[in-house]
Amino acid sequence: MKAFREHKGIAVPLDRNNVDTDQIIPKQFLKRIERTGYGEFLFYDWRFMSDGKPNREFVLNQPQYAGASILIAGRNFGCGSSREHAAWALAQYGFRAILAPSFADIFTTNAGNNGILLVTLPEPQIEDLQERARAAGYELKVSLLDNTIIDAQGFSSKFKIPEFRRTCLLEGLDEIGITLKHEDKIAAYERRMA
User: Fold this and answer.
1) 119-178, pLDDT tens digit by residue?
2) CB burial string 65-102: b at 16+ within 10 A, e below
3) Euclidean distance between CA atoms 67 and 70, whole angstroms
4) How far apart are CA 49 and CA 27, in angstroms?
5) Are 9 and 66 spatial neighbours (Cβ–Cβ below 8 Å)?
6) For 81, how many CA atoms within 13 A lie in the half-sphere containing its CB?
């Protein structure tokens, strides 16, 4: 997992509540046997028309958001099924951080295990950031070193994150990686039990 310390990038507003994992990565793309190649299918039913052409109205297809890496979403982002594919699609598309008033529990774990920082902010701050992000080239700097979000226009906010998740992201370790930090103790225990 790629470690997260600080990230500065273009922010894109996704002004929708209750975005579920089937909207993030539709079920027809879950047949793949690899963990790669999901980014191109992110928000597929919103990004593309029924004839396969890009939907120019959808925010990610607008030129000012090319290369966006910070998503500003509505409340309850990542609800629905527990598919980890949703986190894979977001990360492989290029998103490093997602800001929202709230996130679904299982999605929170999946995102963290895939190096995506989820930042919960009060709804008025999210609405303010979504409005700011409508300007072309709007960038945010998200720091996990001091738990802050800032922009060049004066926005600044602190955020909270559980210490376990913060440590995992800072060190670039998923739950298995954290466990393997104690490999010597695990091996010693197995020798004693043998």
Assistant:
1) 999 999 999 999 999 998 999 999 999 999 999 999 999 999 999 999 999 999 988 888
2) beebbbbbbbbbbbbbbebbbbbbbbbbbebbbbbbbb
3) 9
4) 17
5) no
6) 12
Tokens 């992110």, residue located: 42
Task: Say how far apart CA 182 and CA 194 lie, in whole Å.
Answer: 18
CB-CB contact of 170 with 115 (8 Å): no
Which amino acid belongs to residue 147? N
Which of 73, 77, 74 is CA-nearest to residue 86?
77
Q: In the numeric block, which tokens belong to residue 60?
A: 């990610």
Identify the burial level of 149 via C-beta atoms within 10 angstroms of its C-beta, where 0-12 means exposed, 13-18 middle and 19 or more buried: buried
Amino acid at 104: A
Look-up of token digits 């979504």? 130
Place of tokens 């928000």: 43
Which residues are bridge partners to 39 per DSSP?
none
